[in-house]
Structure formats: C-alpha cells, structure tokens
Structure prediction request, 174 residues.
Amino acid sequence: HVFCALGTTMKKAGSREKFREVDMDYPLKLARLCHSEGASHFSIVSALGASRSSPFFYSRVKGEVEAALQEMHWPSLAIFRPSVIAGDRGESRPFERVGEQLLKLAPATWRPVQAADIAAAMVAVAVESPPVESPLTIAAAIVGTLPGRLEEAQAAFASTGGLHATGLFTAGGT
Prediction:
C-alpha cells in the first residue's frame, strides 16, 4: 500500500511551476515507481473541487494528478478529497485558521477535516483495498466517519486511548 499526502501552498512554492512540481510531479513519480515495483493500492490526498478542467490552478493541478493516477490502472486507487485540512502545523497560517472556524458552520462537505482523521481513513480504506473499476473517491463528508470504523475494528486497543495502525511491506511494495 502506498500513501501520498504530499502537498504545498502557492506561497511556499513561490511559483506555479514549483507548486506543480511538488503537488503533481513528485506524487506521480512516487506512484510510477511503486506501481512498477508491484504495489497494489495507492491512496492520495487531493482536494475538494479537484478537476483537470477547473478554471482554478490549484484545483486543476489536483485534478490532473487524479487523472494521471487513473490512467495508471491501479488495482486499487483511493482519492481523498477533503476541504480545509485542520490540525497543528509547523508554520503560522492565520487565514486558514479563520477559514477553519467559519467552515465549521458550513455543510459537512465543506467542513474542515482533521489531518489525523484523513490518515486514519486512508488506512481503513487501504486495509480493505477494494478493487475498483474506477478510482474510489472519498468525499470530505465521509472521511471524518472512517476513523470510527477503524476504532470499532480495533476494540482491543480502546484502553490505550488511540487508534493503532501499522504496515508491513516487502521491497516490492506488497
């Protein structure tokens, strides 16, 4: 199983070219390498509104990545499309913090999703590794519900106060 949550901001990247390099080129290089080595499942964090025909650069790049992954014909592909990703960050993002607060009142699709919930959802879906005829796209409203499923499946760990997940992979990625 391969998990990709790589991404940057236009401000940090400094240019459209650098943004595309981080948000598109690097994830696709990872996907190609792992696919060629026999990995059977790929999960990626994309974005709400991703579409390769979007008039917005950010959403268009995310859509282009999704399309390229689909063209690779993964046996199992999960695309997670959260809205604003909430959680602790190493740098200050005051506008995102204000947006997070405002979006808490929005419909479920637009509400912020905790980074830890996205990670837990990625693990839960990968454990099932559903073979799909088209990529499995996980909507923001569903992402937040998947950690509960993982908790239920790990009832023995309830006394430790957290979710537990691990992965064991061969050099070939399986």
Q: What stands out?
A: The radius of gyration is 16 Å.
